[in-house]
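Structure (tokenized):
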């Protein structure tokens, strides 16, 4: 079965009415026949039919056994961390990590006795040497935000498991239309469904998928106990977005490659970060584990200053200056002063986030128009 067919037909019709669209069960509670006797639902924090449809859907698409929907991507990460580590344990995280995850790791979990170390997981030897007896979780993004680093998920999973650690993969940039980390050996996958899964910049949501029953039960407990659940309406919005995921990701990737090729030849551009380019450090790894290269392109300027980057991101018309990514409209941002501002400058520079680095979320507009928009912005510096 082809990917678009599989995605569309993984979304169920309503068994009660035959409705082709998943119904929105906008209810807080459910009538019971007798105390504890019900139809699988008693209270919407614990379970809700619309949310369950989304949770079953993402589990199916990622090839996992348990799916969970949260109020944000960070809420999904938080539930996973609290399900897998405790005081005295260590997390090995990729160095080029999303700024919000870094803030959560460094300013919240360290207060509870959890050690965090940041490693360039592109280098398997360095990664293996970094693991210790206290390492319980390896946390990577592939591709990363914002320098599009690619880690060999299968190789990292093998190393982590030999050392007794679990592997969690943030699959937000690739999406299940392109990459399935669980099939490559990962134990947990998370998504900021705010991005490509929702796809229309109209919601905040997070998803987690677990492979094993033990992990699934732990995450379910945290989800219910802490209550950071996704609402029925937002669950429905994510389901609706997923219906066109494969089509959108193909167009995002096509446009992004055209933009990356343009940038790689521009005299004012120093470096382009896009795994679809043959000169990307881990292009071959991306070819092996991804079907598509995605819609995010980052680049740095020859004039490597915050001022130059600011001129570019404020000089575009079609690329709107905004946080987030993954919607149908193109966005641009300056990570050093926006999404990754919470990361110390020294660490940003070490992980490849220069002062002039600009991240583009390439949308579904005509690629020629987007390229012209960038050319117009470059003319102002």
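Design, position by position:
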């Amino acid at each position: 079965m082809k990917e678009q067919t599989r995605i569309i037909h993984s979304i169920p019709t309503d068994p009660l009415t035959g409705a082709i669209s998943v119904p929105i069960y906008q209810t807080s509670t459910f009538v019971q026949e007798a105390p504890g006797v019900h139809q699988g639902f008693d209270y919407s924090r614990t379970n809700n039919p619309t949310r369950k449809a989304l949770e079953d859907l993402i589990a199916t698409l990622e090839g996992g056994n348990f799916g969970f929907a949260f109020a944000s991507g960070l809420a999904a990460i938080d539930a996973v961390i609290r399900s897998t580590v405790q005081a005295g344990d260590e997390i090995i995280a990729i160095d080029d990590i999303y700024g919000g995850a870094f803030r959560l790791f460094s300013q919240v979990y360290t207060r509870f006795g959890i050690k965090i170390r940041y490693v360039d997981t592109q280098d398997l030897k360095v990664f293996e040497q970094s693991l210790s007896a206290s390492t319980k979780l390896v946390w990577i993004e592939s591709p990363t935000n914002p320098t599009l680093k690619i880690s060999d998920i299968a190789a990292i999973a093998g190393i982590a498991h030999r050392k007794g650690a679990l592997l969690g993969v943030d699959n937000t940039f690739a999406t299940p239309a392109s990459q399935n980390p669980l099939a490559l050996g990962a134990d947990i996958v998370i998504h900021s469904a705010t991005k490509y899964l929702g796809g229309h910049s109209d919601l905040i949501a997070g998803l987690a998928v677990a492979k094993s029953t033990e992990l699934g039960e732990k995450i379910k407990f945290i989800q219910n106990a802490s209550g950071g659940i996704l609402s029925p309406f937002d669950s429905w919005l994510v389901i609706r977005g997923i219906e066109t995921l494969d089509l959108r990701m193909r167009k995002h990737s096509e446009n992004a490659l055209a933009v990356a090729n343009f940038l790689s030849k521009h005299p004012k551009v120093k470096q382009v970060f896009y795994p679809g380019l043959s000169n990307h450090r881990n292009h071959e790894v991306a070819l092996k584990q991804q079907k598509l290269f995605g819609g995010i392109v980052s680049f740095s300027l020859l004039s490597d200053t915050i001022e130059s980057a600011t001129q570019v991101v404020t000089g575009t018309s079609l690329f709107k200056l905004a946080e987030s990514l993954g919607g149908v409209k193109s966005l641009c941002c300056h990570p050093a002063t926006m999404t990754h501002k919470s990361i110390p400058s020294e660490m940003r520079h070490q992980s490849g986030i220069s002062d002039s680095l600009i991240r583009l979320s390439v949308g579904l507009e005509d690629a020629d128009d987007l390229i012209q928009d960038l050319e117009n912005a470059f003319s102002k510096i």
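Reviewer-requested clarification: DSSP finds 13 helices and twelve strands in the chain. Residues 246-378 form a domain with the Aspartate Aminotransferase, domain 1 fold (CATH 3.90.1150.10).
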